[in-house]
Amino acid sequence: MSTPTVSAHVTDHAAQAASDSLTVVARTEVAGGVVEYRLQHSDGGRLPDWAPGAHIDVILADGTTRQYSLCGDRWDAETYTIAVQREAEGRGGSISLHDQVFAGDEVGFGGPRNNFRLAPAEEYLFVAGGIGITPLLPMIRAAELVGAEWRLLYLGRTRPRMAYVDELAAYEGRVEVHCADERGRVDLDAWRPTDPRVRVYACGPERLMHAITEWGAVGGGWAPKVERFTASAAAAAPERPFEVVATRTGATVTVERGESIVAALRRVGIGVITSCSQGVCGTCETDVVEGEPDHRDALLDDDERAASRSLYPCVSRCRGERLALDL
Amino acid sequence: MSAITDTALPVSALDPFSDEFLADPLPFLEELRELGPVFRLEKYDVHGIARYAEVHRALTDWQSLQSGAGVGLSDFNKEKPWRPPSLLLEADPPRHDAPRAVLTRVLSPRRLRDLSAEWQADAVLLVEALLARGREFDAVTDLAEVFPLRVFPDAVGLGEEGREHLLPYGDYAFNAFGPQNARVTDAAAHIAPRLEWVARQCLRENLAETGFGAQIWEAADNGEITSAQAPLIVRSLLTAGVDTTVTGIASLLQALANNPESWRRLRDDRSLLPRAFEEAVRVDSPVQTFFRTTTTDTVIADVVVPAGRKVLMFLGGANHDPRRWENPAEFDLDRDPSGHVGFGMGIHQCVGQHVARAEALAVINALLDRVGSLEQTGPGRRHLNNTLRGWESIPVRVR
To answer: Are the Cβ atoms of A49 and B345 closer than 8 angstroms?
Structure first.
């Protein structure tokens, strides 16, 4: 007998500004140098839905933005889980998080977005390099649920620094953990599938991703899908008020911290139709006339974000002082 | 607060699929809303919810309330579906993920921009031809049914032959979510050739090289979905993309034909048009009901709904809930209809909603450009369907 799931609190979306910050409800060191954060809305409500392979933008108070794969349980609609590896050689995002963000603290977020979607297949080979295990965990669960065959090759330098190894041990016979300090270099090409039904999903450091990409279409089937650790295209703006001009009416309004563009426009009598209020449905799409949006939606791909011809004002903000919108 | 057990639930003897209910649902929906946040429908032995908060929650909470057991009365966990289940409407994550991602992209507002411009031009031709024939016409059979059938099958990439099957096929599919009443059984005798025609149109060789259908097949080429999934995803477009849009456009025309002041305001300010369409969808929600099935013992408003129960969501009830909407029965251009559940909400929200909006706006825009006033000249006739709240006829006059 399972425990009943308790009714989530329903907010009046139309009257509510989009909440774009999350609270750290738990912080756990899950391996040497790897910290897992569990994030929730302060009111404990549902977070935007996501699928395996998705990541969120995590935005620190100074505007530093980093992308982290969601690695938790999507059947828990109120919690996002990310795992952050301390990168001494990186650009400082992971160090800022590790040293400055603790339970009870708030971070901004955007997304979730997905450039690494799991396609249906009868059989999968997952290859993880180090913290690249994170997007693969929800994929493994999905493969289990649909009854697909799968194997995981999990590469790392040393076992104590590899996250979630113990959880993965439950999948008897499907998981190969290969630590360089125990077994030396892996013979990667021995893992290249020969059966065209097998689809390869890999995430990890550039050198490993390059090697997997070199495999090409395996067995005449599909090319491997890889996700590289890349620096995010652009940092978000620090959370500060900005001005929005509605060009058709000439009305101008200041969007305060923690307030959505939609909510600010409503204050001056400009109604923008919204539906989901989470940047996932596309109903409120608005053309940008001038200014640089800080996109927080789950819809635009990287090229569309770069072009910035339109934005979703239920969640997105502004990188500069002023946005002019076709309203 | 202790949860209410099943025995204490308010019970209703109403049949939401009866002619009487479908012909004029609003008073019955009020009765159901006021019974309580959760009630039982005796006739079908299902739970029901008709208030905004509960319906919104049920729509978004796919974890507790699944679609995979069917969104009609039939429980796919216990009965064989009448057709291979929809990969979108009748599926849950993770199986739902890939088909949904593909259709979301194919039908995104950004992809529809060029098409919208074509549809605007098409709507002008249609309206001009209609006005050339006279100043009195039927807003349903002469306009609301004609325009979607003119542009949508082309956009999908269907051949010219057999398009007359689309409306009756959709009508049947939406009836089939309800019980096996006369609306289903009477049509069943004639449905086989329509089903065969629809299935044939979904095959790659029968689709144009461009269009939504071709783009779905391209997604199979790219490995985003399997080639076995592609025809079923095309089928979803044909099932859900015609009758619904016809109904939405008819509802908007009916609302405007009875609100001359709104018509005048729209003529002067087209930026209100998107709001007018959403408000029409709220007031006269084309899709009135869908079921979910509880995956686990689920608490809805302090009521424990046991696992494996069908829950009937009254979208039309939620869109008229006075707890959420002031004067809900009023079509009001000064209202913000944001958050209405006429298109559903959450991961199963209508993936074609942007198509519906683009079509409706094209038609009404063309009419607003050429017509000073629009008025209804006689009683409209409802088209009864177990799921859709549609129109058979709305006689109008334009000046």
So the answer is: no
Cβ within 8 Å of residue A223, ≥6 positions away? A213, A215, A216, A217
Burial class (CB in 10 A: 0-12, 13-18, 19+), B24: exposed
Residue with tokens 């007018």: B276
Q: How far is B335 from chain A (nearest CA, A)?
A: 9
* Distance (Å, whole) CA A219 – CA A215: 10
Q: Give A-chain residues touching B339 at CB under 8 angstroms.
A: 12-14, 274-275, 277
Query: Which residues of chain A make contact with B101, given a CB cutoff of 8 A?
Result: 51, 114, 117
For residue B87, give Cα distances in angstroms to A103, A257, B90, B101, B219. 40, 41, 6, 12, 15
| Residues whose CB is less than 8 angstroms from the CB of residue B65 and which lie 6 or more positions away in sequence, other chains included | B58, B292, B293, B294, B295, B298, B311
Identify the residue whose tokens are 């009257």.
A15
pLDDT tens-digit series, residues A45-102: 999 999 999 999 999 888 888 899 999 999 999 999 999 999 887 778 899 899 999 9
pLDDT digits (tens, 9 = 90+) for A192-223: 999 999 999 999 999 999 999 999 998 889 99
Quote the pTM value.
0.94
